[in-house]
Amino acid sequence: MTFNEANTVEQMVLDAAVSNGWTYAAGPSLSRQASDVFVESSMRQALIKLNPEIAEQPDRADEVIYKLRAILLSVQNDGLVRSNEALAEWIKGDKTMPFGPNGEHTTVRLVDFETPSNNELVVCNQWTYKVGQLEKRFDVVLLVNGLPIIIGEAKTPVRPAVTWVDGASQVHDDYEESVPAMFVPNVFSFATEGKALRYGSVRMPLDIWGPWRDSDNQQEGSLADVRKSVTSILRPEVVLDILQNFTIFATDKKHCRIKIICRYQQYEGTNLIVKRVVEGQIKKGLIWHFQGSGKSLLMVFTSQKLRMHPVLGNPTVLIVVDRIDLDTQITATFNAADVPNMIKAESREELQTLLSQDVRKVIITTIHKFGEAEGVLNSRKNVIVMVDEAHRTQEGDLGRKMREALPNAFLFGLTGTPINRADKNTFWAFGADEDEKGYLSRYTFQESIRDKATLPLHFESPEIKLKIDKDAIDDAYKQITGDLSEQDRDDLAKRAAKMAVLVKSPERVRGVVEHIVDHYQSKVEPNGFKAQVVTFDRECCVLYKDAMDDITGDPDCSAIVMHVTQGDPDDWKVHQRSRDEEEKLLDRFRDPGDPLKYLIVTSKLLTGFDAPILQVMYLDKPMRDHNLLQAICRTNRIYPIKTHGLIVDYIGIFDDVAQALDFDEKAVQQIITNLDEVKKDLPKQVAKCLTFFPNVDRTVGGYEGLIAAQDCLPDNEKRDAFAAEYSLLGRIWEALSPDPSLSLYEADYRWLTQIYESVKPPSGNGKLLWHVLGAKTIDLIHQNTELDTVQDDIETLVMDAEVLESVLGAPDPGKKGKKLAIQLIARLRKHAGDPKFVDLGERLEKIKDRHEKGLIDSKQFLKQLLELAKDMVEAEQQVDPEEEQDKAIAALTELFTEVKTEDTPVIVERIVKDIDDIVRVVRFPGWQNTSAGERDVQKALRKTLLKYKLHKDQELFDRAYGYIRQYY
Q1: Angle value at C-alpha 887, between 886 and 890, nearest 5 degrees
Q2: 697-701: long-range contacts (C-beta < 8 A, 24 or more apart)?
Q3: What's the pLDDT score for residue 668?
């Protein structure tokens, strides 16, 4: 028996759902037309069953369904996220209709959240959805009362190059774009190939789709592991809990609406807190989740669930942060998420008034506001306090005063920093004796990297001449402590004169800044990431900025962010900014198109600053323990094509990093990778990739060389194995480039890259393993691409009947076929993304596959390829480059004419010409399918828009980029 996606992965998902209480039905058996999103008969029954007012007059159900249909129709204008949000309000029971006596508004219930089994729960496969001529088929759909709230894609488990990413990208890039109405009721979608499962919400980028685990299911890799994940996440009570309490709609930095759903560790942490509060026995707990794994959102989800919980009677939720100023990442997260009934207590008086008046809301404040509190402010039991960065907030009087002010409150501490076993305070303050290891919920560094919630950290140590001797560092450590104010720390640093003199010597400052600029421009900037420079003190910030301006000749590429006081020198005061000005500067830093590349800091922005575009920290300041850990974790946030955070250590603290992370587990040192170790792996990995090609002469070019190499990868199994090894080599190359150690292996790597590209499936299947090449690899290939020089005679072959006959009668049709297949793949790549050519690519893969399996002989193989070539030439003739160019310019002209106002300094013709000129220079065939191509074109577009002061208009950028993708 053969194994395929239908009889393995898809069937396993259906069986797991049925075991959880869903009823199986084949898609075609449901009472709906192919053009219907809802199963309206089921919705009608549920509305009558769950709403007494509708049961009295069943026709009212049609009024509700009519309103829901209108939301489906509006998706084209409003966009998928806003329509999804509008329907979610109805599903969650936040909407009313005038169905009560005298036309009073009453709540409309579409779903019973209290008793999940009271709903009609259906799981089906073979669900077909049709819009006009367009038809899509979904592998698995789960419905609650006729609402399709989950869509799952199953992929084959027996090809290593096909992974969950193929299913997820089908959902994200195809279905959500082409049939968005089908996703308006969606809570989440999932994809699996039987080895790993990932889930995400509408329009969520694939790189942040997450795994689902629970305490009984930490492994993945086998069908049995995936079955556990599927069984866990598809429990009706979990699905409805995620819909009701773990879904938020927020506004991102670009003012776009986004949908966020929980990761599994947030789901677990929130529910453990809520359970403890509802039971009311244990009054505290420690949540210990690693930096960057989403603690701010965990607090949002927890606040939301506590405030809505029917048993808790409208509680007060207090979020306590430790920064003096309330504009923290947590406040920003709560604001962006539109959490209802949230207020900031900006002063001690305000906090005391809110608590003593028994205000039932979510209150955000700082620990310092309790400083002057005397006695009890609120003795209620349903006050729940969540303290952020609990490891340093709870020391001394402030923590004690908070406890005195709220004697009966629940206290939950959240920390992202490993806690030293000697540091009993945090455990004492929040860890309940009943919790076996002292914490209620734990999510480690290793788990966050395994789940790709954060990235690994790499360390680099530059030339020893820039280092400071160890005695001087130790001396400075005695003087500089993490618990003092910045002013005190500056004063103490001045006393550590030996250290300061060494750090600030002009030769060293110049040497360090030259190294920073050279390192950044060669290793970080090509990938589009940004940098933070952490200096010894505020004086150093100014010295480094002056040196950087001199070396780069570009004062706009860097900015200092530091506290400035009245008594500071005048040349420091130019760096003073109001809170609004600082926020605008940080938004510029987060913008990939903005010329601001480096932020120079000494203590600001080392905690709570979230800028995923930041990849590298140039560290020239002695730090220890959680201060050090929090600082370096600014760099390991997820961002497209980013593979790791990078710390360049000028002060020699690598050992202390290992210690800071080794408070709890030795395994951490395997995750912190010194780049010297990566260098050792390079020759081994190159050799591993070359073993696939024994006896192949790599000096032979053209078809002969390529066919010889391809003959060593005769089937999918061999090709996938090579792709896996090459992927690892590609990651090593991108991490090290442009290190001089690479030059020895450059010829081999270029050759291997070309082989990899030549055997990559032309239809783009297997997106995870057959990854797009990194920016540095593409640069290398662009420098010298032998494949482009291979003679292409497809037209001659397909146009000339005599040649056709002679080719088919050739003595070695197999070799001719391979040569033709290479030509076809190269030609198909030039039209990547065009649906006509994607279909031709899939046809080519099927022909090759049939030949490999011996189902057709070499002559038939060549004949079928020639037929395909003929179709391709015809398809190409329908694409007129001149016409395309005119279309592109016309579309852009129309767009910029439309946005032109009296205040916009734009000469339409000039801006369109600038975009056209610059895009034609940076693009290359198939650029839309490579991260590097997309990034280069986006960069070029942003630069042009910046020139005309239009770079802030995100909608304009998105539309212009959409036209460029389509027409260029």
Answers
A1: 85
A2: 698/747, 698/748, 698/751, 701/786
A3: 36
| CA–CA–CA angle 724, 702, 864 (5° rounding) | 75
Length reported for the chain: 968
Residue owning tokens 């291997």? 752
DSSP-derived secondary structure for 47-83:
HHHH-HHHHHSTTHHHHHHHHHHHHHHTHHHH-HHHH
The single-letter code of the amino acid at 846 is K
Burial label for 434, CB within 10 Å (0-12, 13-18, 19+), is: exposed
Q: What is the 3-state secondary structure (H, E, C) of 725-755?
A: HHHHHHHHHHHHCCCHHHHHHHHHHHHHHHH
Q: At what angle do helices 954-967 and 881-899 cross, to 10 degrees?
A: 170
Residues 398 and 142: their CA atoms lie apart, in Å, by 50
Contacts of 953 (CB under 8 A, 6+ apart): 899, 945
Question: Is-contact 387 394, C-beta < 8 A?
Answer: yes
Q: What angle do CA 202, 205, 210 make, to 5 degrees?
A: 85
Task: Please answer whether residues 51 and 34 qualify as being in contact, where contact means their C-beta atoms are separated by less than 8 angstroms.
Answer: no
What is the rounded CA–CA span in Å between residue 604 and residue 537? 11
Query: Coil, helix or strand for 810?
Result: coil
Q: Which residue has the higher pLDDT, 188 or 837?
A: 188
Q: What backbone phi and psi angles, to 5 degrees, belong to 721? A: -65, -40
Determine if residue 105 is left, alpha or beta; phi over 0 gives left, psi from -120 to 50 gives alpha, anything else beta. Answer: beta
**In degrees rounded to 5, what are phi and psi of residue 293?**
-95, 10
Alpha-carbon distance of 487 to 467, in angstroms, equals: 26
The answer to whether the CB of 223 falls within 8 A of the CB of 157 is yes
Torsion on CA atoms 399, 405, 406, 411, rounded to nearest 10: -10
N-terminal to C-terminal alpha carbon distance within the chain: 47
A 10 A CB-CB count for 107 gives 13
Please state, in angstroms and as integers, the Cα–Cα distance from residue 92 to each residue in 69, 100, 113, 123, 852, following that order.
Answer: 17, 20, 8, 21, 53
In three-state secondary structure terms, 317 is: strand
Rounded distance between C-alpha atoms, residue 563 and residue 572, angstroms: 10
Cis upstream peptide for 738 (omega within 30°): yes
Report how far residue 966's alpha carbon sits from residue 968's, in angstroms, rounded to the nearest whole number: 6
Q: Which amino acid is located at 967 in the chain?
A: Y
> What is the phi/psi pair of residue 410, to 5°?
-85, 135
What does pLDDT average to over the chain? 81
For the chain, the 3-state helix, strand and coil shares in percent, each to the nearest 5, are 55, 15, 35
Give 423's contacts (C-beta < 8 A, 6+ positions apart): 391
Q: Which of 178, 200, 204, 184 is nearest to 84 (CA)?
A: 184
- Pairing state between β 614-619 and 673-674: unpaired
pLDDT bracket for residue 465 (50, 70, 90): low
The pair of three-digit structure tokens given for residue 330, joined into one six-digit string: 């947590």
**858 — pLDDT class (breaks 50, 70, 90):** confident
User: What's the number of CA atoms in the CB half-sphere (13 Å) around residue 556?
Assistant: 3
> How many degrees, rounded to 5, is the angle at CA 458 between CA 455 and CA 459?
150
Which strands sit side by side in the sheet containing 23-26, from one edge to the other? 23-26, 121-131, 134-144, 147-154, 188-192, 197-200
- Tokens matching residue 210: 């997450």
The whole model's pTM is what?
0.73
HSE, CB side, 13 Å, CA atoms: give it for residue 117: 3
DSSP state of 773: P
Kind and range of the H or E run holding 124: strand 121-131
Give residue 667's pLDDT band: very low, low, confident or very high (50, 70, 90). Answer: very low
Which of residues 550 and 733 earns the better pLDDT score?
550
Amino acid letter at 64?
Answer: V
Rounded to whole angstroms, the maximal C-alpha distance in the chain is: 101
